[in-house]
Design goal:
- Chain A: Keywords: Cell cycle, Cell division, Mitosis, Repeat, Transferase, WD repeat.
- Chain A: Belongs to the WD repeat CDC20/Fizzy family.
- Chain A: This is Ubiquitin-protein transferase activating protein.
- The complex is a heterodimer of chains A (398) and B (244).
- In chain A, a hairpin with a 6-residue loop joins strand 24 and strand 25.
- With 398 residues, chain A is mostly beta strands.
- Chain A has 2 helices and 31 strands.
- The longest helix of chain A has 11 residues.
- Chain A has a 5-stranded mixed beta sheet.
- Chain B has 244 residues and is of the alpha+beta class.
- Chain B is 30% helix and 27% strand.
- In chain B, the strands form 2 sheets. Chain B has a 5-stranded antiparallel beta sheet with strand order 5-3-4-8-7.
- Classes of the chains: A mainly beta (398), B alpha+beta (244).
- The interface between A and B is large, with 36 and 57 residues.
Chain lengths: 398, 244
């Protein structure tokens, strides 16, 4: 007698329930007639000895562990756009609910062993959605870009037009410019613990951040002036904004403020010298000046008033650390030889700096520095390679 | 028995086979969806309501479940077209213990073949005869379509309307069966099994399995429906209360 699998399942015969009510019982046929019996039982049990039972290999999807809201206060999984679309991050997926059409759409589901979605945040235009540090076009459901780099999870994010500020678990806040390749345009480091709240003032001038270290910071958007000291690794200089006008020095290890300098006006950028124990700060209204201070004495070494016609927006230092470039809304890019190396033969003067600005202007659409010549002096060759911009250079003679 | 291997050969029968297959696959799709909803395999928010067979049917809107089901039904359709599938089974299992708790079985009879096997007037098999297999014990003739009468007489083609009405009746009954089925109060998962003929072509995505029978089961025979070529019998087996 052949086995038909699990016999003895139906003691006393098989009960059919007809129409859910009427019961009919089949008695087993004579057990001595082996083959007939097994055939009968097989048929009754719905088994066919000449058949194969096949099973679809893939397991049925389990939706239990999926799409649940991660229970973590420090994540930001809900965001409502100005286009009346609500985005929600559920575990590894982001869903967009269109409140006008009352329609839900799945935007993305992260694949692999990644962490779950930690945040969703709409851009001001309501068309782009950032999740983690990915930017998505919701209309076409395509990923525009990924801006990675944070060492830990990013729990909070805030948009200001093209700038996305992301707060990380390690306490750092990065500003990303979504338009440019090197997206990280600033790092704001003051928090020692996970950044859990981050929001721009509606005019984009200030960014407030709150963190697990129980500190709320207000960052002046115009003072993304932050610079690490090259010779003292844990020393960070941060420039204050229009109201603050201070340059603060932080011990990044202890988090303590070690020094403060009143700069007299908004600090737009800070650059440390490599060669000297000095730093340069650029400023906004009213003087639009550049200043060089020595550290830690905080004495002003050089002041260049009216370095630009409007506030100095950005500054950058050349790779050799000698020349600083500045740019302002006055359409001028200027080069300043602020930290020129002393010649090895010792010919260089160690006296108070004598400044020399050598103007060499490109054919600009205006914005040419009229007072280029005023500072006169020995000729650095600053310009020529940048078209359509005025370029000046200044040499500081030591 | 000699005519058992007879397959629809002429073009008209091919059309019938294709049409019948389509109806059956569609029925399985709605029926499985409906069961997944009713038996709580997935939360209600994964389903949306749609009109079908003159009923409000609940169909999943989850892409993952959808594609899983599409994969299965694609193969069922291929087997139906090859006349190789005998049963389709939806087994509902406990997620934790993997015990089969409930088993929905749909027997697929090729009525052309069966007429040659069971009918007394075997000579009429090349006509559109719809003899009813009398082998199934306890079947209630009143549940099936009125068109199934004397096997010797050629019957008119069953209209789509008639088939839809039968499907509607079976789906109604499945919905009503929730009232006597035991509660599935643990987390469950589901599996689709197919019983095929030995020589059926089996893709790599399918493999041999045990029949997923329910231990200590009570079985309830449900209604049937038939197309011009197939007859589907439904049966549910479920676990009797452990105390009994």
């Amino acid at each position: 007698m052949r086995s038909i699998g699990r016999t003895g399942l139906y003691p006393g015969g098989l009960i059919w329930r007809d129409h859910l009510h009427r019961l009919t019982t089949i008695s087993p046929v004579d057990p001595l007639d082996g083959s007939a019996y097994s055939q009968e039982v097989a048929r009754a049990c719905g088994l066919d000895l000449n058949s194969r039972i096949l099973c679809f290999n893939a397991e049925a999807p389990s939706l239990d562990n999926r799409e649940s809201l991660v229970d973590d206060y420090y994540l930001n999984l809900l965001s409502w756009s100005c286009m009346n679309q609500l985005a929600i991050g559920l575990d590894k997926s982001v869903f967009v609910w269109n409140a006008d059409r009352e329609h839900v759409e799945s935007l993305v589901t992260l694949k692999g062993n990644l962490d779950s979605v930690t945040l969703v945040s709409w851009a001001d235009d309501g068309a782009s959605l950032a999740s983690d540090v990915q930017v998505w076009d919701v209309e076409t459901r395509t990923k525009l870009r990924t801006m990675s780099g944070h060492a830990a999870r990013v729990g909070v994010l805030a948009w200001d037009k093209q700038i996305v500020s992301s707060g990380c678990r390690d306490g750092s806040i990065w500003n990303h410019d979504v338009r440019v390749h090197n997206h990280k345009v600033a790092e704001l480091s003051n928090h020692t613990n996970e950044v859990c709240g981050l929001t721009w003032r509606s005019d984009g001038m200030q960014l407030a951040s709150g963190a697990n270290d129980n500190i709320v910071n207000i960052w002046d958007a115009r003072s993304t002036a932050l610079a690490w000291c090259p010779w003292q690794l844990n020393l960070l200089a941060s420039g204050g904004g229009t109201y603050d006008k201070q340059i603060h020095f932080w011990n990044s290890t202890s988090g303590a403020r070690v020094n403060t300098l009143n700069a007299g006006s908004q600090v737009t950028s800070i650059i440390w010298a490599k060669e000297y124990k000095e730093f340069m700060s650029s400023h906004g209204y009213p003087n639009n000046n550049l200043s060089v201070y020595s550290y830690p004495s905080m004495s002003k070494v050089v002041d260049i008033p009216a370095a630009h016609d409007s506030r100095v927006l950005h500054s950058a230092v050349s790779p050799d650390g000698q020349t600083v470039a500045t740019v302002a809304n006055d359409e001028n890019l200027k080069f300043w030889k602020l930290f020129e190396k002393q010649p090895k033969d010792g010919k260089g003067s160690s006296k108070r700096a004598k400044l020399s600005l050598s103007g060499s202007a490109g054919s600009g659409s205006g914005g040419l520095l009229e007072d280029d010549g005023d500072c006169g002096g020995d000729g650095g060759t600053g310009g020529g390679f940048l078209h359509g911009k005025s370029i000046s250079s200044l040499t500081r003679i030591r | 028995m000699m005519q058992q291997q007879q397959r629809p050969t002429n073009s008209r029968n091919q059309i019938t086979l294709r049409g019948s297959t389509k109806i059956i696959v569609e029925f399985f799709e709605y029926c499985i969806n409906s069961l997944l909803f009713q038996r709580g395999l997935y939360a209600p928010e994964y389903f949306k309501m749609t009109k079908k067979y003159g009923l409000n049917m609940l169909v999943t809107n989850d892409p993952e479940v959808k594609s899983h089901m599409r994969e299965i039904l694609k193969q069922v359709e291929a087997w139906l077209m090859a006349c190789k599938v005998e049963k389709l089974i939806l087994a509902i299992k406990s997620k934790e213990t993997m015990t089969v708790l409930e088993r929905w079985q749909f027997d697929i009879h090729n009525t052309k073949d069966q007429s040659s096997t069971f009918s007394t007037s075997t000579k009429t098999t090349n006509t559109d005869s719809f003899s009813r297999p009398l082998a199934g014990a306890g079947q209630d003739t009143s549940t099936t379509a009125p068109s199934l009468s004397s096997p010797s007489k050629p019957k008119p083609e069953k209209t789509e309307k008639e088939i839809q009405t039968e499907i509607q009746a079976i789906l109604r009954q499945i919905t009503a069966s929730v009232s006597f089925l035991p509660m599935l109060d643990e987390k469950c998962t589901w599996t689709i099994l197919c019983q095929t003929e030995k020589d059926a072509e089996v893709p790599a995505t399918w493999s041999d399995a045990d029949p997923h029978l329910v231990h200590n089961a009570e079985q309830v025979k449900l209604r049937s429906f038939s197309t011009n070529l197939h007859k589907i019998d439904a049966l549910v087996a479920y676990r009797l209360n452990d105390d009994l």
